[in-house]
Amino acid sequence: MKLQIHSIHFDADKKLLDFINKKVAKLETFFDRITGGEVYLRLDKGEHSRDNKVVEIKLFLPGQTLFAKEQKNSFEAATDEAVASLKKQVGKHKTKLREKHPTNTNMQIVDEEMLEAEAD
């Protein structure tokens, strides 16, 4: 999966970029057809709260784009939350695909039972 990371109005250090790459790459273990992704890192300056780090992640799948946005007190915490949200979305997407395109295992079981019945 090709992942593009954009830090808006600041330069992210290599340690943070490696952390984000590692976390987002783990999503491929749940669904291997992820084609790419984009990550946007921003600082919200309008608010005076501690939770001013914003992470937005887009994942590109064949025929669909998944999106998660989280705001926390650190980019690492926001990334963890966004990846957890995307993990749920990927699971729902896989479930929908399975319902839409069921495998032929049920047909194989029925065929085997019919062959056994004919043999008797």
Name the CATH superfamily classification. Answer: Ribosome hibernation promotion factor-like
Q: Could you report the average pLDDT, rounded to the nearest whole number?
A: 86
CATH C-level name: Alpha Beta
| Cα distance spanning the termini | 52 Å
Query: Which structural category do the helix and sheet elements fall into?
Result: alpha+beta
Q: What share of residues are in beta strands?
A: 25-35%
Shape assignment: elongated
Percent helix, as a range, is 40-55%
Domain count, please report it: 1
- How much is the radius of gyration in Å? 21 Å
Would you give the CATH topology?
Answer: Double Stranded RNA Binding Domain
Task: Report the strand count.
Answer: 4
| Helix/strand order | EHEEEHH
Structure annotation, total helices:
3
Largest sheet: 4 strands, mixed
Task: Please mark out the parts with pLDDT under 50 across 5 or more consecutive residues, or reply none.
Answer: 104-111
CATH architecture: 2-Layer Sandwich
Largest sheet strand order? 1-2-3-4
Protein name: Putative sigma-54 modulation protein
InterPro entries: RHF-like (IPR036567), RHF/RaiA (IPR003489)
Précis, in short:
This protein is an alpha+beta fold. It has helices spanning 14-25, 75-100, 105-119, and strands spanning 2-7, 36-43, 53-61, 64-72. The longest helix is centred in the C-terminal third of the chain and has 26 residues, at 75-100.
